[in-house]
Amino acid sequence: MAKFRIAANMEFVRSADLDFKAGIAVAAKLGYRWIEPMVHTGWELLSEVGYFHSFSMEEDPLLMRDLCEAAGVRVASISHSPLMKPEAAVARLTRAVVLADAVGARFVNSDEMLKPDWMNDEQAHQAMAYTLKKVSMVAARHRVSLCIEPHGIYSTTAAGLMRLVELVPSEWIAVNWDTGNAYLAGLEDPYESLRAVRDHVRHVHAKDISFEQGEAERGKVTGTPVGCACGEGVVDWDQVIEILEPLERDLFLSVECGTIDQAAQSLAFFRRILGSRLLED
Predict the structure, then answer these.
(1) Residue 185's CB: how many other CB atoms inside 10 A?
(2) Can you tell me whether residue 191 is helix, strand or coil?
(3) 4, 151, 163, 188: least buried by Cβ within 10 Å?
(4) Residues 6+ apart with CB under 8 A from 45
């Protein structure tokens, strides 16, 4: 039976204009023991001046490890780069895989991205297949899973998501299930979709959607950056856990919310509902 660990996707400190080091200190103070950082190539201005949490992959990967160890947190996974733009995705995702391995994380998460108007469906899947092939070879060497989430025009049905996962035969390509995106897309029952892809789920973005956002946007968008506090929105978490529980592996529930207060509420919520199924290491 599955056991669960709770991580904090670092987007929760974006609204507070905190950099990576300050953000992980907040995560640790709230009680999180695992985090999911955002990473980028090059030198991003807001990160460099201390107002944004993304970590540059131009830095020594072991700097991330050392900062996390000092704060008392560990890296669960790395987020992420869209698949449909190989000129960006291949470099970012391959470097993210190497970084993940260096810091002890076993998952890199990604999505399809926005399809440009000039690209047709066949071209889009060819571009994603190229990205996935290049990244899967690096992922296999480092034993890091590349996990694709529902977010976009192809991946927000179970069949569409599985088509992406199976574009390139590899045991290192899997699913990062995003509870909020699956709900907002509104194309299928999100719980039936989760059942359909469950065997391929290696990681979960725990994203709840407020009742107001759900009413305003469901069926009109294919995803959202962050949600509300877990347990305060439309997601039936008991059903999500029930669907995932038969899996014979440990799973990260990486909380994707928009504020520090919501991150605190989400951690308390999952501790309450998971009980003995929660791993606190």
Answers:
(1) 26
(2) helix
(3) 163
(4) none
Which two structure tokens, joined as six digits, stand for 18? Answer: 């905190």
Angstrom distance (rounded) from CA 84 to CA 78: 18
Distances, alpha carbon 259 to alpha carbons 15, 262, 270, in Å: 6, 5, 17
Helix, strand, coil in percent for the chain, rounding step 5:
45, 20, 35
**Both structure tokens of 220:** 């009109």
pTM exceeding 0.70: yes
CA-wise closest residue to 89 among 47, 53, 51, 133: 133
Whether the Cβ atoms of residue 279 and residue 7 lie closer than 8 Å to each other: no
Average pLDDT of adjacent 10-residue blocks, the chain of 281 residues: 97 97 98 98 96 97 98 95 93 97 98 94 98 98 98 97 98 98 97 98 98 97 95 98 97 98 98 96 87
Domains and CATH numbers, the chain: 3-277 (3.20.20.150)
In this structure, what token pair is assigned to residue 90? 């291949």
